[in-house]
Design a protein that fits this description.
This protein is of the alpha/beta class and 421 residues long. It has 2 domains: 194 residues, D-Maltodextrin-Binding Protein, domain 2 (3-Layer(aba) Sandwich); 181 residues, 3-Layer(aba) Sandwich (D-Maltodextrin-Binding Protein, domain 2), CATH 3.40.190. Helix content is 40%, strand content 13%. The chain is built from 16 helices and 11 strands. Strands 2-1-3-11-6 form a 5-stranded mixed sheet. The chain has a 4-stranded mixed sheet with strand order 8-9-7-10. Helix 7 packs across helix 8. The chain is globular.
Length: 421
């Protein structure tokens, strides 16, 4: 999940790519050389889904700079559309032809680790985990082992239209669910609703609901608990009472942004990747933490972004070369500049601290990142099926086809039947 927004994982993965790129990945064992020192050249392969012009340019420049400072390591990069990366990665993990460096959505980490295609980074070199945000490391950790380092991260917060709130007599954005319900109804005028969020029949719904469930003490493995049920009921009440459009059950995150940008929503649940897009809009907006049920609760968001990982099928020399590159990226100035091009926040603390100083408009997102975690927390490789159950529950509760209690009960039955992992 990143500047591309969250797409559909389902059985494999999905989400519209921004731009289609060409090229096929080359297996790691096609690389030459057996040492990262001396005169021999080690060629390693890398695969990502950075097909948008800004992203592609940023990673090409990063690789070019690395190759200039490390003339004995060559990186052969391949970019594929987002929808193709996971299916292709799974196929190559089976055939032991994964690229040396696989840049993958952090949601895919549990699945890729389960294939046995990745190696723990600490089996290749040393990583000082104290230099990284704790929550960010949850996105690259499985079974207590570190399988990658974050490329960059993002999370969710509340955008609000300052003009609309002022016109409605609201002095500050809502801090609690009670205030959110009241303010959203007050902001609903004609075709303009108080708040827009994404609750479609796919995992985007779970991604956007997560902050409300987690901050209320809930877990997605316990959908029938009060923490989760109350969060689902909040969204259902927002729709039922007119604070949010009934169309949220069809809204993608792109739709949510479009509603806010067009003035059809006074507030929206969204990540930092839309900050650059809003620069060109005549909207006076602010960003605040998402409301919590009780003022004493801590907001916790899911963490989006990608991870640098290393393939098990690579040679020892290639693994060392890949690790050299990944470690080289962990530089305060270098990583901050790279992540800024993606609308990401660095997980590496020195770069993160510098990023916060240089990008004050990301302050809310940066603060929440310290208290956030991976979306697959507690569910692991069951994430696609859990997200399906959550999305189905939301569809039922928000359309009124069933009560919230019945909807989460059904979801719980599905989730309880899944194998433990």
């Amino acid at each position: 999940m990143g500047i591309k927004k969250l797409g559909i994982i389902a059985t494999l993965c999905a989400a519209p790519a921004l731009v289609v790129a060409c090229g096929t990945s080359k297996p790691s064992n096609s690389s030459s050389g057996n040492s990262t020192s001396g005169s021999k050249t080690v060629t390693i392969s890398e695969m990502d889904y950075y097909t948008a012009q800004t992203q592609a340019s940023a990673i090409k420049n990063l690789i070019s700079q690395f190759e200039q400072s490390h003339p004995n390591i060559k990186i052969d990069r391949t970019a594929v559309p987002y929808t193709q990366l996971l299916p292709k990665s799974l196929q190559e993990a089976t055939s032991h032809t994964l690229p040396t460096i696989l840049v993958t959505d952090n949601l895919n980490i549990p699945t890729m680790v389960q294939t046995g295609g990745l190696v723990p980074l600490t089996s290749v070199g040393q990583v000082d985990t104290s230099q990284y945000l704790k929550g960010s490391l949850t996105t690259v950790t499985q079974n207590g082992k570190l399988y990658g380092l974050p490329v960059g991260n993002n999370d969710l917060a509340l955008y609000y239209n300052k003009t609309m709130l002022k016109q409605a007599g609201i002095s500050s954005p809502p801090k609690t669910w009670s205030e959110l319900l009241t303010d959203a109804k007050k902001l609903h005028k004609g075709s303009t609703y108080g708040i827009a969020f994404s609750a479609p029949n796919n995992e985007q719904a779970m991604w956007q609901l997560a902050p409300f469930v987690w901050s209320n003490g809930g877990k997605f493995t316990q959908m029938s608990s009060s923490g989760a049920e109350q969060a689902v009921n909040l969204w259902a009440k927002l729709v039922k009472e007119g604070g949010a459009s009934k169309s949220v059950v069809n809204f993608s995150q792109t739709d949510v942004y479009n509603e806010f940008a067009a003035g059809r929503a006074a507030m929206m649940v969204m990540g930092p990747w839309e900050i650059p897009a809003l620069k060109g809009k005549n909207i006076k907006y602010g960003v605040a933490p998402l409301p919590v049920n009780q003022s004493s609760q801590q907001m916790m968001s899911p963490i989006g972004g990608e991870a640098w990982t290393i393939a098990k099928n690579a040679s020892t020399a290639q693994k060392k070369a890949a690790f050299t590159f990944i470690k080289w990226v962990q530089n305060k100035t270098r990583l901050e500049k790279f992540d800024a091009a993606f609308g990401y926040m660095p997980a590496y603390k020195p770069a993160f601290n510098q990023f916060v100083k240089d990008h004050q408009n990301y302050a809310v997102f940066a603060n929440q990142l310290k208290h956030s975690q991976a979306l697959f927390t507690n569910v692991g490789t069951n994430l696609p099926k859990v997200s399906d159950a959550v999305a189905t529950a939301l569809q039922s509760a928000l359309t009124g086809s069933s009560t919230t209690q019945a909807a989460v009960k059904t979801a719980q039955q599905t989730i309880s039947a899944l194998p433990k992992n």
